[in-house]
């Protein structure tokens, strides 16, 4: 559900979200600003996010789009003093860069002035190019944005990744919880790195055999691929296969009370190692982040110790390179 962004503010509240996580800061109010952007700008961001959602663009694509508009136009609809027609279209600021207009400063080759100055249409034009760029899912934000914009200052997009995470979170109704990082308090710094990396991939599609140490592949992650990526952050190699994960990190922990955030929890269809079919990263308090199945996305499962399926399938947990505190 999208937030309804109303009101205005002279000075925006620059409250941050959480590094690497798509979520709005707790207590953030679109009417008074989020991540340095005021209500009118956030309304434009909401239009970008809504368009992406309608097109099936994953949250990561929405972050790239919003960050691009932050850099190009400060999330404002620009007219251009050298394009007379643009001055007759509703706008919020006026620039004079070539024939660029709108939230993304798109030039004439992108479409009509009306199309480029309409928030939803201009966002659609951006997504159409981004989503057809080979490998965009595994690119750093700077490269993904640059592949669409071909900017003279490609590195400038990087500074907007965290503000974009917070703004997309606000537009999507996702509020940060817990401590800075992932919203999860880990028992030690290594576990925190692992958790932050996994949580940062929420919204990525499930793709069988997807994911490696550098991020999503083939458009997403499978359950073990997400573990490969998460633990690569602390230099620990994790097999890209659930039964191999179980074998590689024995002894197993079978008492849920002894499992800590940063441990991998595994599930078996027959209660034996040869039936293991799924793995998730434990977050504490009965929660895990995982890549569930085809048609779903990386997300958090709650109350796994009481959920009939997870409770029945649980075989144990393993600890990979994350020391006991």
Automatic annotation (TrEMBL):
Matching InterPro entries: NLP_P60_dom, Papain-like_cys_pep_sf, PG_Endopeptidase_C40
Domain of life of the organism encoding this protein: Bacteria
Key words of the record: Hydrolase, Protease, Thiol protease
NlpC/P60 domain location: 188-321
PANTHER family on file: NLP_P60 DOMAIN-CONTAINING PROTEIN-RELATED (PTHR47359:SF3), PEPTIDOGLYCAN DL-ENDOPEPTIDASE CWLO (PTHR47359)
Family of this protein: Belongs to the peptidase C40 family.
Protein name, entry field: C40 family peptidase
Source organism per UniProt: Pseudonocardia xishanensis
């Amino acid at each position: 559900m999208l937030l309804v962004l109303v009101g205005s503010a002279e000075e925006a509240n620059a409250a941050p979200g959480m590094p690497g996580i798509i979520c709005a800061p707790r207590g953030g109010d679109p009417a008074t600003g989020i991540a340095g952007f005021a209500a009118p700008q956030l309304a434009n961001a909401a239009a970008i996010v809504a368009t992406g959602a309608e097109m099936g663009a994953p949250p990561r694509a929405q972050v790239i789009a919003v960050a691009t508009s932050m850099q190009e136009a400060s999330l404002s609809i620009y007219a251009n003093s050298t394009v007379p027609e643009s001055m007759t279209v509703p706008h919020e600021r006026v620039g004079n860069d070539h024939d660029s207009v709108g939230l993304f400063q798109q030039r004439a080759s992108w479409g009509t002035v009306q199309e480029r100055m309409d928030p939803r249409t201009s966002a659609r034009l951006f997504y159409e190019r981004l989503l057809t760029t080979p490998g965009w899912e595994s690119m750093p934000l700077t490269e993904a944005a640059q592949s669409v914009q071909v900017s003279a200052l490609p590195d400038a997009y990087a500074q907007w990744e965290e503000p974009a995470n917070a703004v997309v979170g606000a537009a999507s109704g996702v509020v940060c919880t817990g401590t800075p990082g992932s919203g999860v308090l880990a028992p030690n710094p290594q576990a925190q790195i692992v958790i932050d990396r996994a949580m940062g991939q929420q919204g990525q599609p499930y793709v069988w055999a997807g994911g490696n140490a550098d991020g999503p592949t083939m458009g997403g992650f499978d359950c073990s691929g997400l573990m490969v990526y998460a633990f690569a952050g602390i230099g620990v190699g994790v097999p890209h296969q659930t039964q191999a994960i179980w074998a590689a990190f024995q002894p197993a922990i079978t008492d849920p009370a002894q499992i800590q955030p940063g441990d991998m929890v595994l599930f078996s269809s027959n209660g034996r190692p040869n039936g293991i079919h799924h793995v998730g990263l434990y977050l504490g308090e009965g929660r895990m982040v995982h890549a569930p199945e085809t048609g779903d996305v990386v997300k958090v499962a709650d109350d796994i110790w009481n959920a009939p399926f997870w409770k029945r399938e649980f075989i144990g947990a393993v600890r990979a390179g994350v020391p006991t505190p």
